[in-house]
Structure formats: C-alpha cells, structure tokens
Design brief:
Elements: H1 2-8, H2 13-20, H3 33-42, H4 44-55, E1 65-74, H5 86-90, E2 94-98, E3 103-115, E4 120-127, H6 132-140, E5 146-149, H7 157-167, E6 169-172, H8 185-203
Parallel strand pairs: 1-5, 5-6
Antiparallel strand pairs: 1-3, 2-3, 3-4
Amino acid sequence: MALIGECRGWHMETELLSCWKAYRALFHHIPSQSRFNRRRRNLMQAFNLIRQGILRSLDLSMDRQCSIDSLPTPVVQFHLVPGSTGDWRTFGATFGKVVTKKQTIFGYRLHLLITLGGLILDFEMTPANATDVEAGCEILSEQTDLEVIGDTASISAAKAAELWEQNRIRLRTLSRSNQKTQPSPVYQHIHTTIRQLIETVNGQ
C-alpha cells in the first residue's frame, strides 16, 4: 500500500488511506492510520532493500564517486520537549548537538549516501546523538569500490583505513583546521563544490 501510494503521489497518510478505500478488491482491510504508520515504520528496512534492488538495475547507480552527509531531524520543538517525548523516546529519539548551527535538538539524524548525480544510494536514520563516523561507516560497509567525499565530521583515520582494506572505499575529507597537513586551495574548492550537491539533496 505504501509503495503504490508513493508512486501515485499520495504522500499524506490520511490521503493514501482514503484513496485506497476505492480499491478494496486489492486490500480488503484498510488499517487505521496509527496502525498503518506503525507497520510502515517497521518495514523501513524492507523498503530500503527493495529500493536498492531496483537501483542496481539503473545506470545512474553505477557512479563510483559519491558524497556522504547527515541531516538533523528534530521531531519536537525544543521548548516542548519536557512534556512531549514519551512516545518518541520509545522509537529511539534522543537529544543531539548540531554543531554547525550551535543547537541542541530532540529527534534523529538522517545519514545519506548519494552519487554525484544526486541519486540516493543508501540511508540510515539514527538517534540524534549518533556520530557521523559511526553511522557513515555502517552505511559504507555495505558498499564496495567507491570514492566518497565527506566532511570533517567523517574523519577517522582508523575507520578510513579499514574501509579501504575491506571494501576498497576511499574516504576523502578536508583536514581539520588544527591539523598540520592541509589540502591545496584548488582541492578545497572542488571539495566544497561537490559538498554543495548533498546539501541540496538534504534541503529537498
């Protein structure tokens, strides 16, 4: 129901369930919205496996140059958190820092791996306090033969070496400002230009 609804453009669950009532020959029992929402969440990994299977048949997914980044996903406005977090905590929401905005949020982080053509290869939703290194390495461990552009939050020399050794993945990041070895201005410009692509995808 969810996959066909997405293809038909029924993006709101209320609209989707309402439209499905015209097709009871396909689904005799239309669940309540709350039950449908729970089942849909529980099937997230299954949806991702189906999506990845389809992606493997597309030429666009053959791009071996990629970018990885995370997007903070708050679920409750910060001033409302004390009295509104019970159900969200059950589903793994936590407090987490957003360093670039100097904020603390309550919710999740969405981690994306995309090709330089803007195609999402893989994703993972984690609690807001999960680090980019942890989630990024988990996503990349399922891939092989990639050159991946990441930001400074992705830096871990040990993890980068492990990814190269086991998965032939070259993780490229800019050095932190306090590191002795700094890339050339030309490389910094190219890196920043590529990173803007995933920022655009995040925004969408």
